[in-house]
Amino acid sequence: MAYTIVSLVFIAVSLAYAILIIRIRFGFKKIAQQPQHNGANLAGSVVVPFHNEEDTIQSTLESILSQQTNADFEVIAIDDHSTDGSHSVVSAMLAANPRLRLIEANDCGKKNALSEAIAAARFNAIITADADCSYPQGWLDAMVATFSHEKCALLAAPVVLSPVSGWFQKFQFVDFASLVGSGIGAAGCRRPIMCNGANLMFDRLEYNKLTDPLNLRIASGDDVFLLHKMKAAGAKISFTAQPETIATTRPAPSMGAFLRQRTRWGGKATGYTDTDSLVVAAVVAAESVLLCVGIAALPLLWKPALALYLTKLFADTLLLAAVCKRFGNRRILWWMPVYEIVVAVYTVCVAVAAMAGIGKKKWK
């Protein structure tokens, strides 16, 4: 009797997970098939917070400042109390780049830096970027044109890991692509749940209507909390997956850095109040926990564990095939059988860390 009940639980979670991921996959395809928009001329402020980014800040700013566009824009680099040479690197760029502004944050933390830069911006169209990303030529025009065409309060665009080599970086690519694809896919189902502040555009007038739009009490998740607040306020949220809007960033350099990053991201989940996000988090967590339990209880639970694993593998591969077709690296899908087991284990670990409060206090 106990075995039957456990098996039914495994089956129920498997079906719930498969339905969720397949629905997200259709939502992703819907966003990916949207036409490219051109021709808008909207003034905007690009905000780039940085903290100890000496190795990447110059290339990031150059990729933004070199955008060939007729739009009037400024770039605000705001220093969140860097202790390396980041400030000097940006200072040296000011003379040759009249669009660039450098300001120092008064309070500590990325969210405070963002809040101060947004308040100091010349324009109401705000675009947030990360100091360790690169933005392709045509990115700014594509973002502005889509934002204007959609007449939305918030526009989210993809971030992809590049370049990748070796098993660890390939694993990160698959993991990161699954998050990006899920965020886009959920939005395609009109249920936006997450986005990436490294490639985000929003209306400051709508932002100013919100109470604590970035949720300052939690260090991470400025992007997701802003999306949730705008969603709750009934503001229009749009996503794009056009190639011109795709930003790139490098994988984490080590296993320790990767786990710290994921734990930091997981720490924001305790602050979620959005129903769609909570449902997705619950289904994913239940699936990961049961897969770990099934592996730990082999050979007793090998049948329900195998069914759960194969269902997850099928659904995730279906989604990631569409995501990787858009973002490249389809050969990485060969890693899926191993990825499914590894990601289930670390998802459980991150969930435990989040419940313990690890990763909530420091953004980097």
Brief overview, please?
The protein is an alpha/beta fold.
Note down, in words, how this protein is organized.
The protein is an alpha/beta fold and 364 residues long. The chain folds into two domains: 2-28 and 273-355, no CATH class; 37-253, Alpha-Beta Complex (Spore Coat Polysaccharide Biosynthesis Protein SpsA, Chain A), CATH 3.90.550. The protein contains twelve helices and ten strands. α6 packs across α11 and α10 (275-296) crosses α11. The chain is globular. The model has no long low-confidence stretch (mean pLDDT 92).
Q: What value does the average pLDDT take?
A: 92
Helix content: 40-55%
CATH fold label of the largest domain:
Spore Coat Polysaccharide Biosynthesis Protein SpsA, Chain A
- Structure summary, number of beta strands: 10
Computed over alpha carbons, the radius of gyration is 21 Å
Kindly list the characteristics that best describe this protein:
Spore Coat Polysaccharide Biosynthesis Protein SpsA, Chain A; 52% helix; 364 residues; single chain; alpha/beta; 2 domains; 7-stranded mixed beta sheet
